[in-house]
Amino acid sequence: MSDISVKATEAFTAAYGEEPAGLWAAPGRVNLIGEHTDYNDGFVLPFALPQRTVAAVAPSPDGTWSVCSTLAPEPVSFGVTEPGEVTGWGAYVAGVVWALREAGFEPPAVRIAIDSEVPLGSGLSSSAALESSVLTALIDLGGLDVPLERRPAIAQRAENLYVGAPTGILDQSASIRCEAGKALFLDCRSYEIEQIPFDLAAAGLAILVINSNAPHQHVDGEYGARRKSCEESAAILGVPALRDVSVAGLPDALDRLGDDVLRKRTRHIVTENQRVLDTVALLRDGRVREIGPLLTASHASMRDDFEITVAQVDVAVEAALAAGAHGARMTGGGFGGCVLALIDAAEAGSTADAVAAAYAERGFTAPTSWVAVAGPGATRL
Ligand code: GAF
């Protein structure tokens, strides 16, 4: 058993005085490209991290749900609830129970203990990993017939309507639908997917993930503000979502948007959707090294047009590129979090050192870096 499986099992036994019936794991994610495109009905291309959240679970004897974790060993218990009734981190679990019932499924009452190795608050989807591990456990233990393609939207509703975060479908899709060795090309309008082979080692390449360790600043409000700007732009342009504006139609769309902020937000989404499509085309052709400039262009667009980067992530991108990376960009919602760099496999140590040196020079908190390999999606262990 992995370390987190052991810790989740021990937390379960300590809290409830019995052994769990099983263990379910769900991963965090890195989004290779396609940022803030999900809630614009656009395209994303994440892969699952090897770092996972494990839920140790067993049926509950009294018809209520209980959840504890290695960080919060005292169980939170609840019955059937409505949004707002369970708050704090327990809301993610109560939200999944609520969203399953709302979708017409009867989740079994269970006891849960959680441990996770997905870094919290680093833009690697620790909340989706929690939701997805619990959702998968409830579906398996309850024998619920919930097709894989419907599961991300159920977890997303938990986050949107129970927890109250206005996020898109990217993170839950990645945690539930990703496969080992693949990047997940997802159409966020139709939920159609294509599993794209993503074997960097065979090409002598690697993805270095650099956690900026920058404190998130005003994340919730800024995320919601970006989403609102995109919806406002789509309404002015008379399209259901910014996905419906093509790169060819962009100059005309920008002319019709009076406001400079709306123009910038729109330009990011439209060009970012095209960069996802271009990246997918290169990967399908086995030309992985050539995706570097698209990654770097995505970063520039997030920095200059969507305005969601901070100094620490910009410096990490610049330092990685100066050290020879083929491309680099921030990944995730922004305002801190992680950067990914496409590098020659042999350069992981030197690239990480170069970023750490650039941080030290500026007096930033030291970054944390590791090579990420595409892992599996949510599963029973
Ligand atoms: C966060 C959100 F949860 C996702 O839905 C997505 O919008 C992402 O930011 C940005 O691409 O992770």
Topology of helices and strands:
Layout: H1 3-16, E1 22-31, E2 43-44, E3 46-59, E4 65-69, E5 76-78, H2 90-102, E6 110-116, H3 126-142, H4 151-163, H5 170-177, E7 182-187, E8 193-197, E9 205-211, H6 219-237, H7 250-256, H8 260-284, H9 292-306, H10 311-322, E10 327-331, E11 338-344, H11 348-362, E12 368-372, E13 379-380
Parallel strand pairs: 4-6
Antiparallel strand pairs: 1-3, 1-13, 2-7, 3-6, 4-5, 7-8, 9-11, 9-12, 10-11
Helix pairs in contact: 2-3, 2-4, 3-4, 3-5, 4-5, 6-8, 7-8, 8-9, 10-11
Bound molecules: 2-deoxy-2-fluoro-alpha-D-galactopyranose.
Protein name: Galactokinase
GO molecular function: ATP binding; galactokinase activity; metal ion binding
Domain Galactokinase N-terminal: 10-59
